[in-house]
Specification:
Elements (H helix, E strand, L loop, with lengths): L7 E4 L5 H12 L3 E5 L3 H13 L3 E5 L6 H15 L4 E4 L14 H29 L2 E6 L2 H5 L5 H21 L4 E8 L18 H12 L14 H7 L9 E6 L2 E4 L16 H6 L1 H5 L10 H14 L2
Parallel strand pairs: 1-2, 1-4, 2-3, 4-5, 5-6, 6-7
Antiparallel strand pairs: 7-8
Helix pairs in contact: 1-2, 3-4, 4-6
Length: about 300
């Protein structure tokens, strides 16, 4: 069985949807779980389910949108169960608006929950994991962030920011046995059921793709049930996991690593002009032999080595 037994886990946004599914499975597998959700009744209901099944859990209704709230969530894990081994940063909200019409509530509220919330729980969790020499951190991104989604600019920006955050944590944590990864889940939850599809009339190419998706036959299995995402998440936070610095997609029963890569491109022999860029544009965009840098320095080193090779 995937190793999470006797580990202490924190799951934010765990009162419903994906977070609830993660928390219940962690509890079933023997982890001690802090179930965090600003809806106190929902958090307590999940705790009651875990306890009724013979597990151990504690409820938290603190908000991830403040430093104090994030620290209180992690402090509860340590005070109740002695340590913090696993963090699944899952709390989220969604606000829809055309990009040019987004006001401060549609921007700030989303970034506060997703991106700043990841900082607020991530920092105290990382510090505790570093002291104990072990940790598993899993942050929630979205295909909206890496691939785009109409009328979701703030959500997409926050989710893309989480990828950068997690990549940096992975680099800083590796020497302390802290693994950090990102999950991009596709699931039917209360948040996704509120998606506004009014954009289809304005973003016709994406709308046509959605129509084709809807019309494509399925195998009759509800692969958007949150339970289809759970196995990947549990593996990534388990003792068995060896991967860090990764982005992983769970989409309709397909589990896949998502790479952020750079094409070989064109190495300019001297300071180029815009005309030189235009002339070499096909080579710049040729993605036939992608390189996947593991850090900003890895990318710079690859370019330098290519420059040496070409001179």
């Amino acid at each position: 069985m995937t190793g999470v037994a006797d580990r202490v886990a924190v799951v934010t946004g765990a009162g419903s949807g994906l977070g609830r599914a993660y928390a219940l499975e962690l509890g079933r597998r023997g982890a001690m779980v802090v179930v965090n959700d600003i809806a106190a009744g929902a958090a307590q209901a999940v705790v009651s389910e875990i306890v009724a099944a013979g597990g151990k859990a504690a409820a938290s209704s603190e908000t991830v949108t403040s430093r104090a709230g994030g620290r209180a969530i992690i402090d509860l894990a340590i005070s109740a169960f002695g340590r913090i081994d696993i963090l699944i940063s899952n709390a989220g909200i969604l606000r829809h608006a055309r990009f040019e019409e987004m006001g401060e509530p549609e921007i700030d509220n989303v970034i506060d929950v997703h991106l700043k919330g990841a900082f607020h729980v991530g920092q105290p969790a990382f510090a505790a994991m570093k002291r104990q020499g072990y940790g598993r951190m899993l942050f929630t991104a979205s295909s909206s962030g890496l691939f785009g989604h109409p009328w979701q600019a703030s959500y997409a920006a926050a989710k893309a920011g989480i990828v950068g955050l997690a990549n940096t944590i992975a680099l800083e944590g590796k020497d302390h046995s802290i693994l950090c990864n990102v999950i991009m889940p596709s699931a039917r939850t209360g948040m996704t059921q509120g998606v506004d599809y009014g954009w289809k009339a304005e973003v016709t190419e994406v709308g046509a793709t959605l129509d084709r998706l809807i019309a494509t036959p399925t195998d009759g299995v509800d692969r958007l049930d949150p339970d289809w995402v759970v196995p990947l998440a549990i593996h990534l936070v388990s003792d068995d996991a060896a991967t860090t610095h990764g982005v992983f997609s769970a989409c309709n029963g397909r589990y896949a690593r998502v790479a952020i890569s750079a094409a070989p491109g064109w190495i300019a022999p001297a300071m180029p002009s815009a005309d030189d860029i235009a002339e070499h544009w096909p080579q710049i965009c040729d993605a036939g032999n992608l390189f996947e840098p593991s850090s900003v320095y890895d990318e710079a080193l690859d370019v330098r080595l290519a420059l040496v090779k070409h001179t």
